[in-house]
Amino acid sequence: MQLRHLRYFVALARHRHFARAAAECGVSQPTLSAGLVALEQELGKRLVERDRRFVGLTEQGEAMLPWAEQILGAMGSMTQAVAATSAPLSGPFRLAAIPSALPLVGRFGAALLQRYPGLSLAVQQAPSRQIEQDLAALSCDAGLTYLDHDPPAHVVAVPLAEEGFLHVAPSGGDWGEEGAVVEWAAAAARPLVLLHGGMQYRRILDAQFAARGLSATPRAVADSLVALLSLVGSGQFATIVPDGYARLVEGLAGFDVRPMAADIHPAQRLGLLVLDRQPMGPLAKAALTVARTLGAV
User: Fold this and answer.
1) Do 109 and 187 sit in the same domain of this protein?
2) Domains in the chain, number
3) What's in the keyword line of the UniProt record (predicted)?
4) 16: which residues sit within 8 A by CB, 6+ positions away?
């Protein structure tokens, strides 16, 4: 079985498009298609449903995908481990982060690249469950996510920050005295734009409201904190974002930014995760080394 054929298969499963998968693999579309046919012939199973375009993976293809991802990930880790015996770490470092953890990317990424200058950083935003799946499939090297709410399994975690909540609204509104906290009941009564319910931060936020006997029914939802702030900037909505975004939004013209009332739950911890596996790859080890120097909480 040729590794390049596995790469074609995994790329196609990720992109769900023949031309984009071929472009990622650096081959022509006919070459990719021929490689997939060769893989199917070797296994004696059809892996991909296709007409003139990609339709989906067959049941056999779905069963094979996580194993193919792990084989390719293990090969990459093996190559890095061998190379690291005679030269500094080099190549791409794949970091996945939930939206709430994106403010940590700068601090962690800068420390990683300073300690390991041969690495290049590739950051992808992903939901927490996708990060857990990507770590298990060895398709990312580390993740930044919550450590206590829906904690992932089979990982090594390093806490990096504790999270509070910020109320962000159009400036000029009746939000009380400057610097005063915003009560949760007052926030629930206003037109809100929030992350959609499938995102972990939204589930945490809903739990905060519910603990106070409240519920928030947003007028709009989005899957990006940038989209939330854009809608707030329209003057029609308020939102609640992680306080890690304070440096990014405080002082911006047109926004009133202040903390929410004291949290009645333990603070949510954000941190770095790597897959707990032996042997641990050199990139995962590097991530843990850097995270532990950043001052775990």
Assistant:
1) no
2) 3
3) DNA-binding, Transcription, Transcription regulation
4) 54, 56
